[in-house]
TrEMBL record:
It is a multi-pass membrane protein. One of its GO terms (cellular component) is membrane. Its main location: membrane. Keywords: Membrane, Transmembrane, Transmembrane helix. Pfam families: Yip1. The keyword Signal does not apply. This is YIP1 family protein. The chain crosses the membrane at residues 26-44, 65-88, 108-129, 159-181, 193-216. It comes from Halosimplex aquaticum. It is found in: Membrane. Residues 6-208 form the Yip1 domain.
Amino acid sequence: MPSVLALLTDPDAFFRTRVPDPSLKGPLAVIVLIAAANAAAALVQSRFMSQVFESGGMGGGFATALQGIIFVFVIFGPFVIWLVYAGVFQGISALFDGDGEFSTTLAFTGWGFVPSVLGSVASIAINYYRFNVRGVDVPDEMSMEAYRQFSQSLQTGPLVALSATLALVFTLWSGFLWTFALKHARDLTLRRAALTIAFPTAIGLLATLRTLLVALEVL
């Protein structure tokens, strides 16, 4: 059975050899790594978020509770996204006469998130530099005008553009892996597999592209 390295070098062979035994252990580990990286990124931003809540006049207890909710979301979010993508892929592939168990689609979809692990690690580094090294000025009082300017500053700039550009690359990479994943998970031709993953992947690409354009102040 090919090593995980084969996923990056020969995804067609990687998924083909896993059809008889589509274990969820490896994909689950991938999603856990993403969740852990997201949690680390949230911790990196925690001091900054506390300053934002304080500037907005939120009490310490409310701010702590809100940060806790955010923390839970970033941890469990990747698992929900994994299930949603697998479900959408399963449904769309049925339109192309796909044949295969949902458990196989779920497992193979999970492997397609491997680029997101790299993206999450890159996000930690960028956010650490942005919020803990360079720093972001938080207004002492969050008036409507101050909030507007502050919000704009968070959405623009070279670091935001860098994050968005990397996200585009990693999303395209995931789409490439998912094409071969669905080819073997649902017994599709390569063309039909590509069509299966096209719409969900395009939505992610368009959302990230908008973030990039805003960061570059094009929109």
